[in-house]
Amino acid sequence: MPVNRAHVGRAMRSTAPIEITRGDIRRFATAIGDKNPLYLDAEVARAQGYRDVLAPPTFLITAAASTGPGLLSDPELGLNFGLVVHGQQGFTLHRPVCAGDVLESETRIDDVRDAGRHELIRLITEFTTEGTPVATLTNTIVSRGTAAEAT
Amino acid sequence: MPTYDETAVGTELPGQEFAIRRLDLVRYAGASGDFNVIHWNERIARSVGLPDVIAHGTLTIATAARLVTEWAGDPGAIESYEVRFSRPVVVPDDDLGTSIVVAGRVAEKLDGGRVRIDLSATAAGGDVLTGARAIVRLPQQLR
To answer: What percentage of chain A has pLDDT greater than the value 90?
Structure first.
């Protein structure tokens, strides 16, 4: 069954401050096998002009999980998670993300469209701090075989 | 660190091969908070039609990004990064796992000291990402 397109434009805000910690960054950098000292050593990061240890470019994916799933799990959207695969992911970093940052996020369903038998659902998450843009993440998921023509 | 002035379109980034084993998936699940069972449970992965456990797509893109961050020297120089997923990275339950082979080249010089890097990533001989590209700010010349 196709996804309910009346949900395009719906948005959800983070309910608690997203606190970026040195430990979170260290754990993520270790998990991706990257030992860059800018991720691990605050002194090295400061010497290069950062406020504190720097987060890897894809780090905020861990925080996007705070709002995206809520929009997608709404039963009225009609999305079957068993049919979903990750289609596209994009990151635009407006400024470096460092330990000590406290962010808010808002995720919206930006678009739903057919691609052959499948549907593409594009989510956009904006991260801000006190209203200043920090990063924009786009995430397109594929709902396999649910396009109106295919059902 | 490469400079904008010295960097020519067509410059190849040093290619790299990154091993991905089951342990890496477990570690990434913990660090990212993505505990989707298809990334660690073979029984469920097979039940939804996958050949075996697959890597998190976001681990694949974090891995591919390392080619760019290591070349640029400063990961904070990455302004944007985008990928599409073309096929899953299957990770067998053995001590070797699989490996992701990443290559990249300077595809375009942009204004503001920025360059576009196009990346490719393959596992088990097939492309796992398509249209992978990063925009990176480079210093104009060595200071």
So the answer is: 81
Residue in B closest to A93 by C-alpha: B79
Total number of domains constituting chain B = 1
Smallest Cβ–Cβ distance between A54 and the set B24, B28, B75 belongs to: B75
Residue A82 pLDDT > 80: no
What amino acid is encoded at A77 in this protein?
L
- Distance from B9 to chain A by nearest Cα, in Å? 23
Tokens of A44: 């090295």
Asked if the structure places residue B130 within a domain, the reply is yes
Q: Which domain holds residue B41?
A: 12-137
- Residue B66 counted as domain residue: yes
Domains and CATH numbers, chain A: 12-150 (3.10.129.10)
pLDDT in tens, B22-72: 999 999 999 998 888 999 999 999 998 899 999 999 999 999 999 999 999
How many beta-carbon pairs under 8 angstroms link A with B?
A: 95
Work out the pLDDT band at A151, boundaries 50, 70, 90: low
Q: Do B69 and A57 touch (CB under 8 A)?
A: yes
Strand A102-115 and strand A118-129: the pairing is antiparallel
- Cα–Cα distance measured from residue B33 to residue B38, given in angstroms and rounded to the nearest whole number: 14
CATH number, domain with residue B57: 3.10.129.10
ipTM: 0.94
B90 within a domain of the structure (yes/no): yes
Q: How far is CA A50 from the centre of its chain?
A: 23
